[in-house]
């Protein structure tokens, strides 16, 4: 049956992250690697052989060539951010569904052009935020929306940092203004911002203010920064992202009745499962020497790693369009756009000497 045919995904670019997603495509039950493209045929061949691509996968020596491949349903695009607007639009115009690495664009104006092309050509868009697809994430949302256990959200703090080595800080595309000019904000900050939005049911904050003390390299690319966010209803959040601090990926969400903590939200400590802690109506004992109702830990097992869960969901949506005439799911481009809007606001605040930026009207 046609509906049982796996979605044929092409990999457009041989970035390091493409190794991980190539494995994810192998593992996803409803997807197959159909092709790979690089600007060099030799590089594409080497990438395919070193990542266990099937013999049936076609090797393309240019990005234009994979766009024209009629045996490719969708493209995974891990190109530098500065190239996203051109190649994502061209992919959509060639009828290819798009799984695009984050940050999705250099700014929301660029991303809106990508979305317009996807809508005009009826193709599915999804960004590469892997942790959103881990089954744990659904459990986090479940707790956050439980008015009896969590209550109303008051504050969230989220950080993602890692201590990059000297080679990374000199040569990685994420520190080059012409390639990934958003630096740590577009990379690590994207995840922290997405987490704060998820905790707020993807409602945009009213204001965003970058925190003093941001560190930029000599080319003006952000290596470390923070920001505070506030919502109409009084909820607040702080984020921190850095290429200069020890590996940390934390979410702390505090409600009127409960608290949620996640210590490994971007990449779980282990692939087969991920945990989080919750506490509800915690207090002290009579002598105020210990807690009553201390936090409890919850483990969520998964048969597939989170990146394969992402590919499986992307392929499912593409399959619905291809086989059943469904319309593209607008949830994913919508939350990508909101994340990009907050990224843009933090960047604008930094550029304006930590001025408060209003997101009203967006």
TrEMBL record:
<dbReference type="Pfam" id="PF22725">
    <property type="entry name" value="GFO_IDH_MocA_C3"/>
</dbReference>
<feature type="domain" description="GFO/IDH/MocA-like oxidoreductase">
    <location>
        <begin position="145"/>
        <end position="261"/>
    </location>
</feature>
<dbReference type="InterPro" id="IPR000683">
    <property type="entry name" value="Gfo/Idh/MocA-like_OxRdtase_N"/>
</dbReference>
<protein>
    <submittedName>
        <fullName>Oxidoreductase</fullName>
    </submittedName>
</protein>
<dbReference type="InterPro" id="IPR036291">
    <property type="entry name" value="NAD(P)-bd_dom_sf"/>
</dbReference>
<dbReference type="Pfam" id="PF01408">
    <property type="entry name" value="GFO_IDH_MocA"/>
</dbReference>
<dbReference type="InterPro" id="IPR055170">
    <property type="entry name" value="GFO_IDH_MocA-like_dom"/>
</dbReference>
<feature type="domain" description="Gfo/Idh/MocA-like oxidoreductase N-terminal">
    <location>
        <begin position="7"/>
        <end position="126"/>
    </location>
</feature>
<comment type="similarity">
    <text>Belongs to the Gfo/Idh/MocA family.</text>
</comment>
